Amino acid sequence: MPKISVEMPGELLADLDEHVGDDGKFVNRSDAVRASVRKTLDVLDEIDARHGRLAEEESGENGAEEATE
């Protein structure tokens, strides 16, 4: 799995840490960030679908999928 580095304000990190650990919803920060990114991407996909943009991306018409293969 690729690693990334992210800078964020201390206040945001402190809020994130409240949800991480034995009493939290997430095992570690990475788990929390992955879950947040997945949720955000799901919401963006729903928005794109409502605006008719998702079908174009899935068919590869925008060229993004072809460039990554």
From TrEMBL:
CDD domains noted in UniProt: RHH_NikR_HicB-like
GO BP: any one term: regulation of DNA-templated transcription
Protein name: CopG family transcriptional regulator
Species annotation: Halobaculum saliterrae
